[in-house]
Amino acid sequence: MNNSRFIVVEGLEGAGKTCAIKQVITTLRSYGITDVVVTREPGGTPLAEKLRKIIIDSAEDDVITEYTELLLLYAARVQLVESVIKPALKRGYWVVSDRHDLSSQAYQGGGRGINKKLLKTIRDAVLGNFYPDFTIYLDLPPTKSRDRVLMRGSKIDRIEAESLLFFQRTRARYQELVADNPSIVTIDAKQPLEQCSAAIHDHIVQWLSSNSQ
Ligand code: Z5A
């Protein structure tokens, strides 16, 4: 039996997921864990990357409905889980993902206001008992998230263009879900990057040691 694990980094845009993933990999490496596959959602396979483009691009002549968005996200997720994540875990690789199902619970459930029961039904139907082993949630107020996205200077995509209220609802749902789940830790993403990285390192170390017994 191998002891590979699935780790997810979550949070609003600009929360620092990219840096957090680098820190996770560095910490795992310091424990001799070097077989690591890094992926992202939506995306991570050729088909899921095509779906990502459809999901985040604006289509003025054919506006994406909330349920279309939701189903596209799950289509991309299932493709990634079945063709990349599960096979990697089976081969003994650790997997680190930039977002996973918690994003749908927060953005589509909180931001869009899609019914929680419906989300759970879809999740359970397509993912069954597949869950991350450990999730790092980077908590950032939407105003700060917006500042960082604007500072980045790149084109604003369809979801990033949503209102501040949308991101407030998304963050509130993240906070609600995190409070309920002991496999998720929260990092204050307002802190300077070095402090975020140190907190991530400490949480991973703690989690690894509590899992090695
Ligand atoms: N989405 C969804 O709705 N439902 C779902 O189920 C899934 C996704 C899976 C694409 O995701 C969109 O899909 C996303 C949610 C939706 N849309 N929105 N809005 P994505 O993960 O690809 O996109 P993103 O969240 O917009 O990525 P991002 O902007 O790259 O976020 P990040 O990786 O967390 O940020 P970063 O690149 O690490 O940092 C951004 C900048 O902030 C950069 O200049 C950093 O240097 C700076 N930064 C980061 N941390 C700090 C700290 N601590 N201090 C100061 N500056 C910092």
Automatic annotation (TrEMBL):
Keywords: ATP-binding, Kinase, Nucleotide biosynthesis, Nucleotide-binding, Transferase
Record-linked Pfam families: Thymidylate_kin
Highest taxon of the lineage: Bacteria
GO-annotated molecular function: ATP binding; dTMP kinase activity
PROSITE patterns registered for this protein in UniProt: THYMIDYLATE_KINASE
Keyword presence, Acetylation: no
Family annotation (NCBIfam families): DTMP_kinase
Functional note: Phosphorylation of dTMP to form dTDP in both de novo and salvage pathways of dTTP synthesis.
Name of this chain's protein: Thymidylate kinase
Protein source organism: Candidatus Palibaumannia cicadellinicola
Gene this protein is translated from: tmk
